[in-house]
Amino acid sequence: MNIYTVFLITHIIAGSFCLVAGAINFSVKKVRGYHTKIGEWYHGGYFVIFITSIGMAIIHWSESAYLFYIAIFSYGLALFGYLARKKRWNSWLSMHIGGMAGSYIGIITAVLVVNGANIPLINQIPSLLLWFIPTIIGTPIIIFVVNKQLST
Length: 152
Prior knowledge:
Elements: H1 3-27, H2 34-59, H3 61-87, H4 92-115, H5 127-130, H6 133-151
Helix pairs in contact: 1-2, 1-4, 2-3, 3-4, 4-6
């Protein structure tokens, strides 16, 4: 087994973990406890995704250079959301929600782009659209949730 394969397997496991952890965290009560613990695990898993993406991009640069830039952007969102909460910046809640939910959109986009051709019904959608649909759907949801949190 070569290093690329190790990165790929680790990447898939961490990505699957983050998909599940993110979905769970969106559904639990937003108080210290489960939400905080799952958020820590999500951030750790996303860091693994980031490192493996960078490694795979470097190893196969000509085919995968885009992974390098997507990894920086997506993990940047996760780190921004994580640090906003940890450091309690001004307006931290909206930054936390935007960063974490934005990073989750990144994972969903990656899954659709990489696997969309093998998913029934999704494989009928033009591949270019798979890059944008999660953001088109997710951004209004993020705005709604931020506005709802700020009004309470």
